[in-house]
Every structure is written in structure tokens, then in C-alpha cells.
Design goal:
Layout (H helix, E strand, L loop, with lengths): L4 E6 L3 H12 L1 H8 L3 E7 L15 E2 L3 H6 L5 E4 L6 H12 L4 E3 L2 H17 L4 E2 L10 H8 L5 E7 L2 H13 L3 H10 L8 H4 L2 H15 L9 E2 L7 H9 L2 E12 L2 E12 L11 E8 L3 E8 L3 H16 L28 E8 L4 H11 L4 E6 L6 E8 L4 H14 L2 E10 L2
Parallel strand pairs: 1-2, 1-4, 2-3, 4-5, 5-6, 8-10, 10-16
Antiparallel strand pairs: 7-9, 7-11, 9-10, 11-12, 13-15, 13-16, 14-15
Helix pairs in contact: 1-12, 4-5, 5-10, 7-8, 13-14
Bound molecules: NADP nicotinamide-adenine-dinucleotide phosphate (NAP) and L-homoserine (HSE).
């Protein structure tokens, strides 16, 4: 019989326990498909005593993830601890230095250290596989590096954070407050250990970094992404947007332009009837555009035990079959350094604010917009109790810089109360 592929699993939380369950439940199927057994030889986590919902007695135990990575009976390190630095990075480096390939779901580590780790891997003829790091269960990396390998990719975009999409859709559909839906997302295992990474847009930006690198053959450039989280999106915004035919999504877009590589992650309005507008719960959607294929849309669960473990196992099975692809889809020395575009392309914007309900207030705001060169497409004022009136504008296409000039001029009008909310509308 062909030798088994021996896995060391570092991290037995939501994803790690999910991987152990699949390897145990599907042992026969995996062996048949790979032509060799896929076996776990050793595991690590912080606590040895915690019940993981799956038996672990058959496996060796290491307290130290680096020791796990270094074991002679571990061929592949499956890193599922998380964290950009610390034990995840130390164990990954230890495995790579021994020429072992690493499978990981750790987008934070790769977005920040991917280039150095890929160089380290290639120096030892190893690779890093990270399907689970981007869009959970959706095989987006495989699509880019294999199915679309003959395409020049022109744009990647999508909704890539299950937590944010869950929060935004639940707030809108059930009319539940942010805190309540946040607690639900936590119970479902969607959240990062530091949830500010989710709601701050940083987790999704980590994913966009990796996607853009593989799509455009560029070094991962997290610092080149314009990032805005969902913290300021209110239930009122979700309802007003719906009233005007839009849904609010945390949307990532990366595209090469004449101005450089445009990469942004921000809450945007998308048409309610569009596939992105219809995306509910923790579901993710990734849109890939290539010169030959045109546009393809991938949709699926973006977080949680089963979907993420499924993606990890896709990488493991490739390795068991002897299939390898360079870490970012091409040799690391051939990745080019992207020049960040200084500003996003012009777009219409949704603008919500509260005005003092007195004569001429609306005119003052319209003047401030006009003087900044921002043209109004539509506006709406809702029934309200004086003395404050909630008002919405939809602008014609404008630059973010012009809009920021208008926002900066609002306090001097003396009629805008509180902080206005400005969200890009993506057609
Ligand atoms: P999690 O539930 O918090 O699990 C983390 C695991 O790592 C725990 O078992 C923890 O041990 C272990 N660990 C932490 N520090 C350790 C250390 N110093 N030594 C040994 N073990 C250590 O996290 P998760 O949700 O499974 O996420 C794991 C990775 O997958 C992260 O990179 C995350 O970004 C990524 N990811 C998660 C999802 C998802 O839906 N959850 C989806 C895609 C990607 P204890 O259990 O003993 O504390
Ligand atoms: N916290 C992440 C999310 C997990 O909510 O999408 C999947 O990467």
C-alpha cells in the first residue's frame, strides 16, 4: 500500500475539530480518492482536556506547535490556530524550513507575511496552501490557479466576511439590534478570535489581499487596501437603502487600473435584485472576471466548521494526490510589486444625515454639495418629529475626494447634526 499522508493538526477549535471529524468520518473515501490513506498522527491545542466533540486518543499530543511541526511522523502541518504572528507563524516557519508543505486557513498571517513565507517555502521546495483562508468553503483559489489559469484576470470582487454579511442581513430581515446578531454570529463559530477584525473589515481585507495576489501575480499588499468596516452602518441605513432598492454589503474590489492597483473593502450599496444584493446570512460570493472566460460567480458558505474544514481538506487531498501549485499561483520571484491606485474610481454615493428642521436647511446642504462639485441624483426626507429631520441623498457619480470636501463643509452650514454616513453605490 502507498504510504499514508500524515497530518499534524495545530489548533482544534471550530476549523481544526471540523478537519479531524472529516478525516475520521471519511477515511475510506479519502483513501480511495487519493490512492493512499490520509491520517492524522499528532495534534496540538492550548488545552489538552477540552472536549472537542471528537475523539483524539488515537493521536500523538504536543503542547508546542513548533514541536508538532517538527515531528518525523508529520508530513504536512495543518495550521488552524490563527493569529498573524506568534505560534502560527513559528510553527509554519518550522515546517517550511524542514521542507514540509503547510495547509492553513490563516489569512491574517499570509496577508501580512505571505511574501516572506512563500520565499521560505520555495527555498525548501515546499508550498503553502490556503484555500480555507479566502471565502470559507468556496474553492476560489483552486478556480483561480487551475480552472482560470489561462486567463488574464481583470477584476475580483465579492462579499468575503460571513460575520458581516450575517450581521447586515439579520439586522435588516429580523429588525434585531447589532449586539443580538453579533452574539448569534459568535455562537455559530463565525467570528475571529478578535472580532474587531471582522466588523472592522480587516479580515475581509486580508482575504482580498490574497485573492488579488493570486489573480494579478502581485506580491500580497495588505497596506494598499482602503478599508472601512461596518461599525457605522445602522439599522436605519439598512432600511433606507432597501427602501431605495439597495442592500448594504461589505464589498471588496480589486482591479488593475491605469492609476495602479485599486483595492478597497468597504460597506457599499448594491442593487437589491442583484446576486450580491440577494446574498443572505454567512454566505460569501466571489466574482472573478477574466479576459477569456468573462465573468464567473462563486457562492457558498464563507465561515463555520463544515465549510472551512471542507476547504482545508481540498488542499490536503491535492497534496495526497501529489498536486502542487506555487503558494501564490506562480514562482514567488515572478510576483511584481503593485503600485496602489491613489483613489477609487468615481461612483454614486448614498448619504444619510440629520438636519435641523428649520427653513433653508436643505438648501444649505445642497449648496455645500454643489460647491464641492457633487451633484444630487435623488433625495428623500422621512416623516419625523421636529426638531431633527433624517434626510437621504443619492449623488451622481463623484469622487470620494469631492464627497469628503462636501462632508468637511457640512459643520459650517450649522444645520447638519451628528456625523453623516456616506456609502459608495456599486452598480
Ligand atoms: P478557534 O476556534 O479559536 O480555534 C483556535 C485553536 O487554536 C484552538 O483549538 C486553540 O486551542 C488553538 N491554539 C491557539 N493558540 C495556540 C497555541 N499557542 N498552541 C496550541 N494551540 C493553540 O479558531 P477557528 O475559528 O477554528 O479559526 C482557526 C483559523 O481558521 C484562523 O486562522 C481563522 O482565521 C481561520 N478561519 C476560520 C473560519 C471560521 O469560520 N471559524 C473560517 C475561515 C478561516 P484551545 O482550543 O485549547 O484554546
Ligand atoms: N470570521 C470569518 C468570517 C471566518 O466571518 O467570514 C471566515 O473566514
Amino acid at each position: 500500500m502507498t504510504a499514508p499522508l500524515r497530518l499534524g493538526i495545530a489548533g482544534l477549535g471550530t476549523v481544526g475539530a471540523g478537519v479531524v471529524k472529516i478525516v475520521r468520518r471519511q477515511a475510506g473515501m479519502l483513501q480511495t480518492r487519493a490512492g493512499r490513506p490520509v491520517a492524522i498522527t499528532a495534534v496540538t491545542a492550548r488545552s489538552r482536556d477540552k472536549d472537542r466533540g471528537v475523539p483524539l486518543g488515537d493521536y500523538g499530543w504536543e503542547d508546542d506547535p513548533v514541536a508538532l511541526a517538527s515531528r518525523d511522523d508529520v508530513d504536512i502541518l495543518v495550521e488552524l490556530m490563527g493569529g498573524a504572528d506568534g505560534p502560527a507563524k513559528a510553527a509554519t516557519e518550522a515546517a517550511l524550513d524542514l521542507g514540509k508543505t503547510v495547509v492553513t486557513a490563516n489569512k491574517a498571517m499570509l496577508a501580512l507575511h505571505g511574501q516572506a513565507l512563500a520565499e521560505r517555502a520555495e527555498a525548501q521546495n515546499a508550498t503553502i496552501r490556503f484555500e480555507a483562508a479566502v471565502a470559507g468553503g468556496i474553492p476560489v483559489m483552486k478556480s483561480l490557479t487551475e480552472g482560470l489559469a489561462g486567463n488574464q484576470i481583470t477584476r475580483v470582487m465579492g462579499v468575503m466576511n460571513g460575520t458581516c454579511n450575517y450581521i447586515l442581513t439579520r439586522m435588516g430581515d429580523a429588525g434585531l439590534p447589532y449586539d443580538e446578531v453579533f452574539a448569534e454570529a459568535n455562537a455559530l463559530g463565525y467570528l475571529e478570535a478578535d472580532p474587531t477584525l471582522d466588523v472592522g473589515g480587516i479580515d475581509a481585507a486580508h482575504k482580498l489581499t490574497l485573492l488579488a495576489s493570486v489573480a494579478f501575480g502581485t506580491t500580497p499588499d495588505f497596506t494598499g487596501i482602503e478599508i472601512e468596516g461596518i461599525e457605522r452602518v445602522s439599522i436605519d441605513d439598512i432600511r433606507h437603502a432597501a427602501d431605495m432598492g439597495f442592500a448594504i454589503k461589505l464589498l471588496g474590489v480589486a482591479q488593475p487600473t491605469a492609476r495602479g492597483l485599486e483595492q478597497r473593502m468597504s460597506p457599499c450599496l448594491v442593487p437589491l435584485a442583484s446576486p450580491l444584493g440577494q446574498l443572505d446570512g454567512a454566505t460569501n460570493m466571489v466574482v472573478l472576471e477574466g479576459d477569456a472566460v468573462g465573468q464567473i460567480v462563486l457562492r457558498g458558505a464563507g465561515a463555520g466548521e463544515g465549510p472551512t474544514a471542507s476547504a482545508v481538506m481540498g488542499d490536503v487531498m491535492d497534496l495526497a494526490r501529489g498536486l502542487t501549485v506555487p503558494t501564490f499561483g506562480q514562482p514567488v520571484s515572478s510576483l511584481t510589486q503593485p503600485k496602489p491606485a491613489q483613489a477609487a474610481a468615481p461612483a454614486p454615493y448614498y448619504l444619510r444625515m440629520t438636519l435641523s428642521d428649520k427653513p433653508g436647511a436643505m438648501a444649505k446642504v445642497a449648496t455645500a454639495l454643489g460647491e464641492a462639485g457633487v451633484s444630487i441624483d435623488r433625495m428623500r426626507q422621512y416623516q419625523h418629529e421636529a426638531p431633527e429631520a433624517p434626510v437621504l441623498f443619492v449623488t451622481h457619480k463623484t469622487t470620494r475626494a469631492a464627497l469628503d470636501d462636501a462632508l468637511a463643509a457640512f459643520p459650517a452650514t450649522g444645520v447638519v447634526t451628528g456625523d453623516p454616513v456616506a456609502l459608495r453605490i456599486e452598480s
